[in-house]
Amino acid sequence: MKIYTRTGDEGQTHIIGGRVAKNDARVEAYGTIDELNSFVGLVISQLDEKVISMKPQLIDIQHELFDCGADLAAVKPGPKGYKVHAEMTQQLEQWIDAYEAENTPITRFILPGGTAVSAGLHVCRTICRRAERSVVALAAEKEINTEVRAYLNRLSDLFFAMARAANLRAGEEDVSYVRSAEVFRRDS
């Protein structure tokens, strides 16, 4: 089987249930999720012994991002329904809570950066936010699995918590945005 089909040379692509222009909102949404998945793979390739424990979660996320893309690429749910479900988002919340228990409290915005892994996770966070915006735009036009939107919203929070934990484990301090007032409540 050849990797090229030539069927998209005229600016159309196949989705589950039809063909659309390559700049269709549906293609933009799942394409941004695909971009995010590639960056998650890049982060995985940079994991060292201090953060290697993140690898199974990141691989699970890669599979779930494919599920998100599949749900968005479908004009309507298949016979088995959608792939993304609320339990996946709940799992992300558990992971967020675990990383946040490890992290020090923050009171100001922080600058993305620190270790290569932390910086990569911040890139994932921002691409995830863009993917979420694309999904919101798509949902304004077409029916979608709204669980994808919730999943992406929570996933960006997880990337933030993981980025902070990666820095902490490496002994790198987060850099506070110094021109900011305190914007987060201090935990008692």
Written account of the structure:
It contains five helices and four strands. With 188 residues, the chain is mostly helical. It has a two-stranded antiparallel ribbon. 58% of the residues lie in helices and 6% in strands. α1 (25-46) runs antiparallel to α2, α1 (25-46) packs antiparallel against α4 and α4 packs antiparallel against α5 (146-170). It has one domain (13-176): Cobalamin adenosyltransferase-like (Hypothetical Protein Ta1238, Chain: A, Up-down Bundle).
State Rg. 18 Å
- What is the averaged pLDDT score? 92
Report on the biggest sheet: 2 strands, antiparallel
The CATH architecture designation is Up-down Bundle
Envelope shape: elongated
Q: Count helical runs.
A: 5
The number of E-state strands comes to 4
Compressed to H and E, one letter per element, the order equals EEHHHEHHE
**Highest-level CATH class:** Mainly Alpha
> Order of strands across the widest beta sheet?
1-2
Helix percentage: 55-70%
Strand-residue proportion: 5-15%
Low-confidence stretches: none
- CATH topology category name: Hypothetical Protein Ta1238, Chain: A
CATH superfamily: Cobalamin adenosyltransferase-like
Q: What's the domain count? A: 1
Q: What is the terminal-to-terminal distance?
A: 61 Å
Protein structure class: mainly alpha
